[in-house]
Amino acid sequence: MSLQGEKTKALFQRATKVIPHGVNSNFRYWGPDDTFVIQRGEGAYIWDVDDRRFIDYRLAFGPIILGHADPRVNQAVAEAIQGGTLFAWTTPGEVELAEKIVKMTGVDKVRLTNTGTEATMHALRIARAYTNREKFIKFEGQYHGMNDYFMFSTASANMGMLGSRRSPIAAPATSGIPKGIGEYVIVLPFNDIEMLEKTVKARWGEIAAIFIEPVMGNAAGIMPRPEFFKTIRRLCDEYGIVMVFDEVKTGFRIANGGAQEYFKMKADLVTYAKSLGNGYPIAAIGGKEDVMMTIDPGHVAHGGTYSGNVVGVAAANATLDILAKEPVLETINKRGRTLMKGIDDILTEQDIPHIVTGLPPMFSILLGIEEEPREFRDYIAGDGDLYEQVAYELIKRGVMPDADGREPWFLCAALSEKDVDETLNIFNDSVKAAKK
Ligand code: PMP
Questions:
Q1: Nearest residue to 290 via CA among 414, 428, 108
Q2: Is residue 1 part of a domain?
Q3: Full-model pTM
């Protein structure tokens, strides 16, 4: 049984002849028979090349916050590019955008980049230069982009290599990373206050930064314990460590001011991407004045030919204007709450142990466990195979979440109440089919 229609199959085969595995990012590869080729998107829907429509809950892994091909954003970009796209000078659009980000998120200063990977890479350098220390703490199951330093103990690392919980190993998620890089990475379980305190107290002189995905957007939307961020904030203040919120998934999605607003917590550095541009490539590093001013021409590097390019900047300016003026996240939250509750009810009715995690704009469904997961190792205990079966049944019926349960369901403002009803009906049928 294949998820691919005839045209998809043919085009994907063509793709594999010239693109390794037929995809431009490994996360999109679902094998030779199940990888999609998408023709277009509009609002909450995408269509594959066989013209089959799907209600899209992958939303390109999160960026689409308004809806696909939002005409207001497209119009802003179309107008802006008539005057050229790249000058290697500051443009008025960049000034406007930085002002908007500052106002919305509460950071003091902003530098623009193009992708989340670039943003976190630069954030790490800034933190190292600011503290004159080299190592950093990251949490198991968290993802901070493709940079070598962060590709340890992510949700795609080999589970057998994570080590014991008492003494986690920085497990490489890929070949091709020099062995020595792992020595700069201190890996800990998320939400474990005691282990964090012990580690920081013993090793603070080596630690430049603590990188945090505030909601585990790459591990089933696992939520922080109420006291966890307060502890991190206190330890960072006490030991001069840079607290970095990686808000690539949460930024401009769980609140206009992201996780800082949602959790009433101020980080020293924050990275944004995804929802900032509603699908256009744009990212940002923001932070407190003194930390951001570590960037210093000739001494501490940040740069990039395409940083602040007209396309991404125009898209982000339009997206943030819409977020500021319209109840975008309110709508998304309302729909998300209905979906979470509906899915919870269906699974209860069908007698499948489960828990719905995360927040309405980015939630996840864990099958086979009923206790609130606190860290990545709790996620692994769930029934990922059953989840994948349910996802495949959903997709066959026109609802497309990711088949990997670690990836949350993302919602956009274009998703209607009717779409939510349709999704829940299809979810009910899909669970029944998967149980068989
Ligand atoms: N940080 C987080 C939290 C992410 O989820 C991602 C991408 N999924 C990245 C960084 C990397 O962003 P990009 O794919 O734009 O490089």
A1: 108
A2: no
A3: 0.98
Residue 273 Cα: closest atom of ligand 1: 15
Question: Is 123 contained in some domain?
Answer: yes
What is the predicted pLDDT for the residue at 373? 97
Domain of residue 281: give its range.
Answer: 81-325
Residue 104 lies in a domain: yes
> Could you tell me the distance, in angstroms and rounded to a whole number, from the CA of residue 115 to the centre of ligand 1?
7
Q: What is the mean pLDDT of residues 241-246?
A: 99
pLDDT tens for residues 174-188?
999 999 999 999 999
CB atoms within 10 A of CB 25: 8
Average pLDDT for 211-240: 97
Atom 14 of ligand 1, residue of closest alpha carbon:
116
Judged against a pLDDT cut of 90, whether residue 124 lies above it is answered with yes
Does the Cβ of 246 fall within 6 Å of ligand 1?
yes
Contact 434, 389 (CB under 8 A): yes
**Count of domains for the chain:** 1
Separation in Å, CA 363 to CA 118, 249, 269, 318, 436: 26, 12, 25, 26, 26
In this structure, is residue 357 part of a structural domain? no
Alpha carbon distance 235, 212 (integer Å): 14
Distance, CA of 432 to CA of 423 (rounded, Å): 14
Q: Please indicate whether residue 275, judged by its CB atom, sits closer than 6 Å to ligand 1.
A: no
289 confidence band (pLDDT: 50, 70, 90): very high
Q: Residue 117 Cα, ligand 1 centroid: separation in angstroms? A: 6
How far, CA to CA in Å, does 70 sit from each of 59, 145, 310, 418? 13, 26, 18, 19
* Count of beta carbons in the 10 Å neighbourhood of residue 54: 21
Q: What is the CATH number of the domain that holds 124?
A: 3.40.640.10
Mean pLDDT of 371-398: 96
The CB of 116 under 6 Å from ligand 1? The reply is yes
> Are 183 and 232 in contact, with CB atoms under 8 Å apart?
no
Which uninterrupted H or E stretch holds 7?
helix 6-18
